[in-house]
Design goal:
- The structure is a single chain.
- The protein is an alpha/beta fold and 300 residues long.
- It contains 10 helices and 8 strands.
- The strands form 2 sheets. It has a 6-stranded mixed sheet, sandwiched between helices. The protein has a two-stranded parallel ribbon with strand order 4-5.
- The model has no long low-confidence stretch (mean pLDDT 88).
Length: 300
Amino acid sequence: MLSFLPSPLRFTIATLLMVLNALFWVPILLIFSSLKLVLPFKAVRLRIDPMLLGIAENWIWGNSAWMALTQRTTWDVQGLDGLDPHSWYMVNSNHQSWVDILVLQHLLNRRIPLLKFFLKQQLIWVPVMGLAWWALEFPFMRRHTEDYLKKHPEMRGKDQETTRKACEKYALIPTSVMNFLEGTRFTPTKHAKQQSPYRHLLKPKAGGMAMALNAMGDKFQAILDVTIVYPDGPISFTDFLRGKLRRVIVRVRSLPIPPHLMAGDYAQDPAFREAFSQWVQQLWREKDAQIDALLMQARA
């Protein structure tokens, strides 16, 4: 609607609307979240958690509204039929930009339960958003390096414990657990440094998904495997606010959860870890080929 405006003006309008939308909803989130701290009982949680999720869904709807107002984006989306907002899902996607998160939220909002992301510990200090993620009980992970863990072995297993506790809470009401298997955003530099065997993806890190499936795999209706492609190249968040997101291709497929991958101990059982890694690598090979095909189709 406002796509005729110059990019700097669209950037200003989009940024202002995004900030105002957050400043409206986050204080409401904090009020209801504080009630859970004061009254830490299961009965209270079962009443307040759906309210918090409803507030977050309205917040996402507001983001979708300013996106539609300031962007002229062509959306090519398949695979959203048959999703259930009252069930549990494990959601996986490739990761190229912070824009991915808004794309996922825009497309999946109210089609499945609210996406819950595993976040780096440092992100809790992000102004306003850190409080919002805390209020919505997004798990914050420390993700120590192997060298650090050798010096501080007492920290080994902390992330697994964080995952387990988060999943115990998520089992109470329908939730979508979001996992970027690559663990970070794709860049050519990271791709080269890893010597990734995939053309369009970094190497997958299967541990987080394995822990979530182990903790609540029997709850998940399916794994939603999402592939996001930007035919004109990945876009920065700044350029997104400038209204430069022209085309997005998204494919969603619902995969059954292999029963033999729900019960093993990824951290302690080498045979199970190998089986899970093989399954994830096959998933990644299929995604890499799909991205290749979608890019060729878009450029034809």
